[in-house]
């Protein structure tokens, strides 16, 4: 039988990635600047974590222009939502000692 800790998803071990996915689970879409402000991280730090989640197909990106300014928005994919939900369930089980 798999131990509880083995059910935790390594993609969400980092606090920034955990924050990104939490924001995306609570909202349909969030743009780059909103995530940066919410998490209090630098552009480069946020971009690297977004790239890691995008490579795993946990999030998807939508780029557009608002006026003349570029705007990048992110949303959780179905796979990302399922993986994050499983991660949260494993955390709950770990906290409950099951």
Structural features:
single chain; 98 residues; alpha+beta; Arc Repressor Mutant, subunit A; three-stranded antiparallel sheet; 53% helix
Describe the structure.
With 98 residues, the protein is α+β, with helices and mostly antiparallel strands. The protein has one domain: Winged helix-like DNA-binding domain superfamily/Winged helix DNA-binding domain (Arc Repressor Mutant, subunit A). Helix content is 53%, strand content 18%. It has 4 helices and 3 strands; from the N terminus they run αβααββα. It has helices at residues 15-26, 32-39, 43-55, 78-96; strands at 30-31, 59-66, 69-76. It has a 3-stranded antiparallel beta sheet. A hairpin with a 2-residue loop joins β2 and β3. The chain starts with 14 loop residues before the first helix and ends with a helix. The model has no long low-confidence stretch (mean pLDDT 94).
Number of helical segments with 4 or more residues: 4
Helix and strand pattern: HEHHEEH
The CATH topology turns out to be: Arc Repressor Mutant, subunit A
Strand order of the largest sheet: 1-3-2
Q: Nearest-angstrom radius of gyration?
A: 15 Å
Q: What is the CATH superfamily?
A: Winged helix-like DNA-binding domain superfamily/Winged helix DNA-binding domain
Strand content: 15-25%
User: How many strands?
Assistant: 3
Main sheet properties: 3 strands, antiparallel
Instruction: Provide the low-confidence segments as ranges.
Output: none
What's the CATH first level? Answer: Mainly Alpha
* Percent in helix: 40-55%
């Amino acid at each position: 039988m798999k131990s509880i800790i083995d059910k935790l998803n390594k993609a969400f071990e980092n606090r920034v990635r955990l924050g990104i996915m939490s924001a995306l689970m609570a909202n349909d879409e969030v743009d780059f600047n909103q995530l940066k402000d919410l998490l209090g991280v630098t552009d480069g730090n946020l971009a690297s974590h977004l790239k890691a989640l995008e490579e795993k197909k946990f999030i998807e990106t939508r780029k557009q222009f608002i006026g003349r300014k570029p705007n990048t928005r992110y949303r959780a994919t179905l796979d990302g939502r399922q993986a994050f939900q499983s991660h949260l369930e494993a955390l709950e089980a770990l906290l409950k000692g099951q």
